[in-house]
Structure prediction request, 294 residues.
Amino acid sequence: MNPIAKKLGHSATDRLVIIHTDDIGMCHASVQAFKDLWAFGTITSGAVMVPCPWFPATAQMCRENPDIDMGVHATLNAEWENYRWGPVSTRDQASGLMDADGYFHQWHPAVYENAKPESVAAEVNAQIEKALAAGIDVTHVDSHMGTIMNPLFIQSYILAAGSRQLPNMLPRMDAQGMHNMMSNEEAATYTTVMQQLESMGIPMLEGITAMPLEHGKDHIEVAKKLLGELPAGITHFILHPSINTPELRAIAPDWEARVANYNAFMSDELKKFIQSEDIKLIGYRQIRDAMRSA
Prediction:
């Protein structure tokens, strides 16, 4: 049984889910979507992209609503073509964090090839500190596009959170489950490290699942299927909701899917489905507080 689920008072057969919104602060549409969904009651957590332009608005929202469960979405990429952002810790090209134009690299391979591990460590710590200084009661640290979870940088990811008694988004995956992210040898090392961390009381998740960003069709039935198939234990369930705005449409080629994520979780139909399912909604605040009490 997952030790943190047991500590939270649940049984080995209980299905716990963190319904989590990624990319908050990437654009205004993401901030408004979070506000709406939090008030509606179908999400339990989110994570802010500290380097992005709408971070201050996210921080203000959190200060005005201190019960909001908001983590830091550790960001090392700026993936869009015409809308970019860069690191908060440095403007030094020698860090390897930036492309020739001074923005984060667009995609994972360029980060892995260029970014110095010590620069990644400084950046993720700077992002967490900036969120805390802005008045966000940070509940966890997770990863934008999974980049910082690569073996090159995962130590920085774990230490940045652990040193502040914050949980990470860390799946209890075996080596086979990690084959898409790393080599077999690296995956075996990851598994050993995760087992050691869990034995030390670091919270882990049974798995991570996500709403699609491939199409903008009705996502209600997709959400029902994914939620209905959740396993026992704790699942990090990701969506990327945004309201429909000109800004979003100009930024994101997948804007229709982001709006469809939002519409599905703003629907009474899906809300009633969630309430009818034998699943327990939790947030990272509960996991963080249980971690700290230990």
